[in-house]
Amino acid sequence: MNRFARKLLATTLLTASLGIAHAAVEVAGIGFRSQETLDSGALMLNGAGLRTRLTFKVYAMGLYVRTPATDATALLQDSGEKRIRIVMIRDLEAKQFADAMRAGLERNHDAAALASLKPSTDALLAAVMGSGDARSGTELILDQLADGSTRLLVNGQARSDIADPALYPALLRIWIGDRPADADLKEDLLNRKK
Fold first, then answer.
1. I need a surface site. Which of 47, 58, 96, 125 has the fewest CB within 10 A?
2. What angle is formed at CA 162 by the lines to CA 160 and CA 166, rounded to 5 degrees?
3. Per residue in 38-79, pLDDT tens?
4. Entry pTM
């Protein structure tokens, strides 16, 4: 193979690999990049999907992790950095969104677990309520940081950092636990092909 052909092939392969790395998944008109950057490096899109309630589209959601997996238990037990990105499609009052999160926690935890999580969940839900109504287009990000703490960002603004390492897996159970908020969304977040 001559020098020109080798350069052309190398350029084509590099361009293709960059295209794959920057490919976006679209859910109800909301784009999700294949990678997000968190404090100490890149997170990969594990899956993305749509939360519906009755016939209404409520929000699009993506789950980013260090090592993608289709097994919910593996993701819940993984203590590495993660990101949940939610973009509202429908207007919700802050209380409605906070109440839905609380209900999801209650569906996926027994009374003892809820009691131990109460200070952390109360702090997070207070931050959600204090952020104002979740209008269409509002972006909420829940990050699990390297130290196990949970950070809430609303439209790019940090709203809360909670040190409890048990909080993030508890939140993740809302969407990928045994009793998820939306079974189809769970399958999409776990990237299980239908």
1. 96
2. 140
3. 887 899 999 999 999 888 999 999 999 999 999 999 999 999
4. 0.85
